[in-house]
Specification:
It is built from 30 helices and 15 strands. The chain has 967 residues and is α/β, with parallel strands linked by helices. Strand 13 (897-900), helix 27 (908-920) and strand 14 (928-932) form a beta-alpha-beta unit.
């Protein structure tokens, strides 16, 4: 597998796109805490996903741990090459989605599903789960020794040993000899035998089956003995059965004689019931023939007579209503025409004109009231202003002078007070800050001078001592003393200089901050003073233009103007409102005169306007009354229509009564003929009521319960069917008394009861044996056959498993030898290439290993790790990881190696040798990605082997990769 590109849209501190070289060691260099280890975790998350199970991760789940530090999206996209095909894996951890695409642009996510929601892409491609992948291919900083745990229980509990055996057993790595042996041993220990309801070892199951077989044979012999003991009672049972059958035949003959007597009585009762049914049927047929008259109302004849009488009376009320109506209309029309003549002056006006005149009158009254009130208010405000000492002439002078100022000049004059206050406040604060920072600088300089004093003293002492030593050597004195003085002087001088330099750096950040604050305060004070000076220049220039000698006089008059403005504003506003009201009143008067010209003229006063509006409305009302004069007498027509409706309603009611009685109205016939016909139908309805209310219910009562009659007929039919034909009263002889029949029946029943008691006693002896034999013998025989089969199956299973275990154990030895020989050889080769002091490595069955060092001493793993240095241990563990990764890699799909600073504890020589192994040997088959923060060290190693590094190592900067500038 080759990793080609990793695009991170948010994963811990990472965000960017990272591209990896296929055939060279990718060396990613950057400082600590920049995300190198996070990059390895991102690759593992892209291949296997992140666990979000809070039951397994109590503190924080991996999904929460790797959430983007800067917020935003939480996605990964990994492009890789596996067995010649390019695959792209996209994971969105925020939404919990996974997408897998092949190089043809087809989505193949379903091929990588495992379980309900898992998509371990790496397991499908590499054959390793996430724990095995992180043990072999992913080496985090400080985890070199975790591929083979030191604890034996942890080694055996992992899956790495089984994975090695699987790789040695098969080309695909799907099984292992150890797993197969465990399955076979488990099968022998957990053999399930349903025949004896037992799960355990095969030996115990076989023993239980043999015991069960002997028990079944004993039970079969017991059943055969019991069957021979009941042969005599069976013959007695047959004889008693014949006696019981004869007694039952005698009882049947007596019962037949009794049924004949009962059948005669039932036949008589059934015949009487049929006669009553025929009478009931005749009356019901007559009632059905009279059914059309059932809907005829009971009082139909009386209602029809009453309705005809009311109809004739209503016809008489429709005569002569028009005369009174004509007389009243003529009188009302004369009155309205006289009123219309008196209002002729308003003919050109409408009701809308009257509404407008009323509105104008109200507006004039309201304007007059408002004007009078405002004039009084203005007079009061002027008196109040004069009482407070304001001269009207000065108010006008100041208003004329400052009223012409533009907005910028008003802002300059109005902001002087606020500007002065802000200047004083800010300057005071800045002066205080400057004083505090100056004091802080003095304290810091004093502290640094005190720390420098011992250094200067030591430096001066060292210089003096060195000079003395040099002079002593120059004059030919004792060389040892001279060199001692010279060396000691130089040492003291250097120590003093170091102390001075250290004192110079003491509290540097604090001093720089104080200097910056002091500089900023001085700059701000200068800017404020410059701003204030510019404002004063503008103010002096404005004072000169208005004729003031100084800006102080200008500001005094400006303040007086502001005060006058505040005091005289109410007066000015009141005067403005009076002027507005006067203008509004003139407009309303002009409009009122225009409206009055259309209505005959007159003064534009509210009272006259209201009078004209009243006349216009009265004219409209008279016109409307004339127009509605014809319709005002509609009540007469309404009464006439009511009478006509009453006549029609009574006629319709009479017709409806005839229709309810089933008759049709004929206008050519008099109403008396219709009444006669309705009377005939009423008599038929009375006959129907007699049938339904009296005759038929009485007949039904005599007939009785229908179910009882049906029961009698069914009993008769059953007796006739039992007798083989209809009952013939003359065929049977005279019936015997029922008491005699009952006495003979009781005698025969007593015989039957005696026989049954004897049979019961015998059957109790026989039935138990026969029943037990009939029920248990087939079951016992079937169970015996099943136990025989199960016993043979268990014995055969034991033989087969023992044979398979013997064969697989022989294969297991060969399997262990395969992967152990490979690891022994390959780890030794890698350690030799890295320059380690190890001659030989031997792996055991549990993946633990022992070492033989260069001095020939053979040591176990635990002892050797205590003897080796940290760098040597890291080399050993790295070689073990690399060898296991090579063995577990598929031939066409080698594992990538993701290493995080694996040479951190190695010296330069071991690191150099290790890099040569990675770049020169492993990179040909495996993709190697190495993280480190030791930039200068690897630059030095590159300078030692320039050819190896140029051909086999790709340098990348992590931050450059995030910005997308690296390739």
């Amino acid at each position: 597998m080759r990793l080609l590109r990793l695009k991170v849209d948010g994963f811990g501190p990472l965000r960017g796109e990272y591209r990896f070289n296929r055939g060279r060691v990718t060396l990613i260099v950057d400082r600590n805490e920049t995300g190198k280890s996070s990059l390895l975790a991102a690759i593992s998350a892209a291949l296997y996903g992140l666990d979000d199970d809070r039951r397994s991760h109590k503190v924080i789940t991996p999904v929460d741990r790797w959430r983007p530090w800067d917020g935003g999206s939480y996605r990964l996209e990994l492009e890789l090459e596996c067995e010649g095909e390019i695959t792209t894996v996209k994971r969105d951890f925020e939404r919990g989605t996974v997408e897998v695409w092949d190089e043809r642009g087809q989505e193949v996510t379903a091929l990588f599903r495992e379980g309900k929601e898992g998509f371990p892409v790496g397991k499908k491609l590499l054959g390793l789960d996430v724990e095995e992948f992180e043990k072999c291919a992913l080496v985090r900083q400080g985890e070199l020794d975790q591929v083979v745990p030191g604890d034996e229980k942890a080694r055996r509990g992992g899956t790495l040993q089984a994975r090695l055996e699987s790789a040695a057993d098969t080309h695909g790595g799907d099984t292992s000899a150890a797993e197969t042996l465990q399955v076979l041993q488990g099968a022998l220990r957990r053999y399930a035998c349903a025949e004896v309801e037992f799960t355990g070892t095969v030996e115990n199951a076989t023993t239980r089956l043999e015991l069960k077989r002997e028990t079944l044979a004993s039970e079969l012999k017991t059943l055969e003995h019991d069957r021979l003991q009941v042969a005599g009672p069976i013959e007695d049972l047959a004889r008693l059965g014949a006696e019981e059958q004869a007694a039952r035949k005698a009882i049947a003959r007596l019962e037949s004689e009794r049924r004949a007597a009962v059948t005669g009585d039932l036949a008589r009762r059934v015949e009487e019931h049929r006669g009553r049914l025929e009478s009931l049927a005749r009356w019901k047929a007559e009632a059905e023939s009279l059914a059309p008259y059932a809907h005829l109302p009971v009082n139909a004849e009386a209602d029809l007579r009453e309705t005809i009488a009311k109809h004739e009376a209503a016809l008489k009320n429709l005569a002569g209503r028009d005369a009174r109506r004509q007389e009243e209309q003529s009188r009302r029309r004369g009155e309205l025409e006289m009123t219309l003549e008196s209002l002729k002056v308003y003919e050109g006006c409408t009701t809308e004109d009257a509404d407008r005149l009323v509105a104008l009158a109200a507006a004039l009254r309201r304007l007059a009231e408002d004007e009078e009130r405002l004039r009084g208010e203005v007079a009061g405000l002027r008196d109040s202003l004069g009482q407070r000492g304001y001269e009207p002439a000065r108010v006008e002078t100041l208003a004329a002078r400052f009223g012409s100022l533009d907005e910028e000049q008003q802002k300059l004059l109005g902001g002087q007070a606020a500007l002065a206050l802000a200047f004083q406040t800010e300057v005071a604060g800045l002066e205080q800050a400057r004083t505090g920072n100056t004091e802080a600088l003095r304290r810091i300089d004093a502290h640094r001078a005190g720390r420098k004093l011992p250094g200067w003293v030591l430096a001066a002492l060292g210089v003096g001592t060195a000079i003395a030593g040099g002079l002593l050597l120059g004059i030919g004195g004792d060389p040892r003393v001279g060199r001692s003085l010279l060396g000691g002087g130089v040492l003291f001088a250097l120590l003093g200089i170091v102390l001075v330099a250290f004192a110079e750096g003491t509290r540097r950040a604090e001093r720089d901050w104080a200097v910056r604050q002091l500089t900023e305060a001085q700059r701000r004070i200068h800017m404020l003073r410059l701003q204030r000076a510019e404002c004063e220049v503008e103010l002096e220039d404005l004072a000169g233009r208005f004729g003031y000698s100084t800006a102080v006089e200008l500001m005094r008059d400006w303040n007086d103007y502001q005060s006058l403005q505040d005091e005289s504003n109410p007066v000015q506003r009141a005067q403005d409102r009076v002027g507005a009201l006067e203008a509004r009143r003139l407009d309303v008067l002009a409009e009122a005169r225009r409206w009055l010209d259309r209505a005959g003229g007159g003064p534009a006063e509210p009272a006259h306007l209201d009078s004209v509006a009243t006349g216009i409305r009265q004219l409209a009302a008279v016109r409307q009354s004339l127009a509605e004069l014809e319709t005002s007498w509609s009540w007469v027509d309404e009464e006439k229509r009511l009478d006509e409706a009453a006549v029609a309603g009574l006629h319709e009611r009479a017709v409806r009564i005839l229709q309810l009685a089933g008759l049709s109205y004929d206008p050519g016939l008099p109403w008396s003929e219709h009444v006669r016909e309705l009377t005939a139908r009423s008599r038929l309805r009375a006959r129907l009521a007699l049938l339904t209310d009296e005759l038929i219910p009485q007949a039904e009562q005599r007939v009785g319960d229908v179910a009882e009659a049906a029961e009698l007929e069914s009993q008769l039919a059953a007796l006739e069917a039992e007798a083989g034909g209809p009952f013939d009263p003359g065929a049977a002889g005279p019936p015997r008394p029922a008491l005699e029949l009952d006495r003979e029946v009781r005698s025969q029943r007593e015989i039957i009861e005696l026989v049954q008691r004897k049979r019961g006693d015998l059957r109790q002896q026989v039935d138990e044996v026969v029943r037990r034999a009939a029920v248990h013998e087939p079951e016992l025989l079937a169970e015996q056959a099943r136990i025989e089969q199960a016993l043979e199956r268990a014995r055969r299973f034991k033989r087969v498993v023992e044979l398979a275990a013997t064969t697989i154990q022989e294969v297991a030895l060969e399997t262990h030898r395969r992967w152990a020989d490979f690891l022994n050889r390959r780890v030794g080769e890698l350690l030799a290439a890295m320059g380690a002091q190890v001659d030989q490595v031997r792996f055991g069955e549990d993946l633990d290993f022992s070492l033989r060092l260069r001095d020939g001493q053979q040591s176990t793993r635990g002892k050797a790790l205590l003897q080796l240095s940290t760098g040597a241990r890291d080399q050993l563990h790295l070689a073990v990881r690399l060898a296991i990764s090579e063995f577990l890699s598929k031939p066409a799909n080698p594992l990538p190696l993701l290493l995080d600073d694996v040479f951190a504890n190695s010296d330069d020589e071991r690191a150099r040798a290790g890099m040569r192994v990675l770049a020169g040997t492993l990179a040909r088959d495996h993709q190697v990605i190495l993280m480190t923060c030791h930039r200068h060290r690897h630059e030095h190693l590159a300078s030692l082997d320039p050819d190896v590094w140029a051909a086999g190592v790709q340098w990348l900067e992590l931050k450059a990769m995030e910005s997308g500038t690296a390739s």
